[in-house]
Structure formats: structure tokens, C-alpha cells
Amino acid sequence: MSITIPCRQLFIDGKWREPVKKKRIPVINPSTEQIIGDIPAATAEDVEVAVDAARRALARNKGRDWASASGAHRAKYLRAIAAKVHIINAGKIHFGLRSPDSSSTVRAPAIEGVAAGEEEEEEERDDQQILSVGTRRRRRGERERDLPIVWSSSSDRCRRRRSPIAVVSRSSFSNLGCSLISEGRSRLFCAEITLRKSELAKLEAMDCGKPLDETACDIDDVAGCFEYYADLAEGLDAKQKAPVSLPMETFNCHVLKEPIGVVGLITPWNYPLLMATWKVAPALAAGCAAILKPSDLASVTCLELAEVCNEVGLPPGVLNILTGSGTEAGAPLASHPHVDKIAFTGSTATGSKIMSAAAQIVKPVTLELGGKSPILVFEDVDLDKAAEWTIFGILWTNGQICSATSRLLVQESIATEFLDRLAKWCKNIKISDPMEEGCRLGPVVSAAQVKSLI
Predict the structure, then answer these.
(1) Considering 142, 368, 426, 437, which one is annotated as catalytic?
(2) Annotated catalytic residue 402
(3) Whole-prediction pTM value?
């Protein structure tokens, strides 16, 4: 199905609004380097309008509409957003990668998403060796830790969850869930929602160049994240005015949890909608009003989040979305005196500038900056397994991720053999247009990023 980039405006005070200076930025498909649409370009003037809208949202009806409303009230909106984004756990999860020593794809059973209470049936199946790992939800009584899922075979697709390298048995991954949904929550089956998930995944693949399978998994996690923070929002109600014991009877003491106010959220291009959700969902759950400024290299799906918020009736001004450059939109947002906190994910250099601007008015900031993560390979490891996960660690998200295993430290006694195995795995990676079936490595996000790498 052909997908057209929607023509959107800035999202301010619950409405689509043309930028004050009427500027727009082209959207370039990194696979073809062709212009496929455009997005609005916010400036300092638009930031002023958005900040005013956010502050009005917090003060409306003396705060009872949002900031001082119950967590359960806000949770309803978060769950409605999740429901609009995708259908939870519908169908089967297929992951896979071709073995370098085989002419055919490694075979493992496709695993269907399992709801709570179906553990026993899953565990009765025969054990079969699994080729790599991910995570699943823990069962009651288990320690909170990463637990394995499978890379399967039938469509050469993959799915990543952060986890240690391991070989596990088939019986160990019952109760699978593609999203972080609350245990026991009913699945949602709706044609409209299914279409929304597919559309968002395709838009994101076209916008930032990630393989379609990866963007589809990201959209699953977007809905799961809104569900997760809906649960936490409800949990806030029980914690309000929690008493604090003091050794003096003349004093009463309790804890009051309040939103910090208006928050500015600046996000990168490697996980456009998911990274935005990691910031938006907790901010809304806490009762804040948010201004989201996504990367100008990948903003399309963030603007679609605005449309979803409109559809579910989110109060005006609670979430505002400004697309544009870091210089013209991000910097004015970070330094605005009526923005109470900034959360930023991106480069160390930009993070330093944001911290400096915030320091002038002692504004709190949360920064997630670049990384240089190592992977260590010792002589007692399964070399094929280690080679597979080394490639996976550096090439996931087209190698553009802060947690990429960009340093490789190998025990000298196995270095030559390991590098040979690594080369074999590399030759089996499919490099193609991210919309193609089985694509495992797509383009770098922009020509400027290519130059910075070379």
C-alpha cells in the first residue's frame, strides 16, 4: 500500500497552527534522497505561543482539568492513546536471521503472543534449542531480570530486546507479550487500530530509514509505554498525602506529589515516536503539560501522535508539538523562563549547551547523551553466538543508537577465529531499502550524518 506523508501544521493548544513565519522543512527519504513531503518549521515565536498554551492548560479550572486531577483521570487518556496506536498482541511474532554456515534460514517455531494464565500449556511443549535471546515479562514470584524470547525463521524478521547472550530452551518463554501491557488486560482487536499501527510503522521507515520490521516493533512499544505509565498514574493516587512518622505529636507530616509544571521534551531521530513517548507518557502521567520538539530529521510520526491526541480528546494545551530545527525551535524552548524542566536525548555537545542554558535560571534538566558501549568476548564463549550478537549490537537501528556495541574487546587467543566468524555473519546481512522484506540494514538517516561518520 502506498503511503503519503501527511501535510501537518504545528500542534498547539489542541489545534493545528501554521508557524508564525510560515516556514517549512522538506522531508527527505534517506533511502532515495528524494523529498517526499514537508513539516512545519517552528521558531521562537511559536515557542512562546506553545508555552502560553501549556501554562493555561495547567491553570484551567484551577488545575482540576489536568494538573491536580486524579491519576486515574489522566490514565484514561493514556490508555486511549495506546488503543489508537496499535492492536495489542494480534497474530504471531516472527524473528529471524540466516546462519552463515547454512544455505537456509535457521528454523525455530513461531511463537504466538500468550496472555496471562497460559503458562502451563506453553511449558508442556517439547524443548528445542533457541538461537538467541531477548526479554519477556516475568511471572509472579520471579526476580525482575531479562528473560529470553526467540529469533524465529519464516520471514527473516528480527526483534530485539536488551539481554545477555545465552542459549535457552523452548520451555522458558511462556507468557510472551510484544508490548509492556498490564497483566491480564484484554487484547484490543479493531481494524482501525491495526491500520494505524501499519501506517505509523511505514511512515517511520520512510522518514528515518530504519527497517520496517524494526519500526513496527517500535510502534508496539509506543502503545505499551502509554499503558505502563497509565498504571503508574493510577498508582499516584494511593501515594498522595502519604503520612510521614515523626517523633513529635505536635506535628503532622505527609508527602504531597505535584507536577513540576511545563516540561520541554527534545528528542532524537533514531527512535522518533518511541523516544518521544518515553518522555511524553511519564510527563502526562505526572500531570505536567508538555511541549515536544522532535528532531527535524524525523518528525513525521510525532505529528501523527498529535492527531491521535485530538481523536481521544486530550485537553487543549496538555501536549503541544513543535517541529523545526534545534537552533530555531529547540534552543528557545530550552532557555525559556516559563518552561520548568527540560528532558533531552541526543548528542553530548548539544546536551552541554542545554545544560548551560538551563543553569542560568537553575532549571532542572534530564540528559541522555551519547555512548561508547563495549562488547567483551572471552575464549570460553560460543563463537558463532558471540559473532551473531556482536553484529546485532552494532547494526541494530542501522548502527545509529547510543547503546550500540561500538567497541569490540576480544581475548587474544580467539581473536583470529572470532573475526573470521564475524566476517561470515556480515556477509549474510541484507542491506536494502527498509521497506523490503528481510531488510536488516537500511540507510544512514541523512547525507550530513554520513559525512560525520566518514
Answers:
(1) 368
(2) yes
(3) 0.76
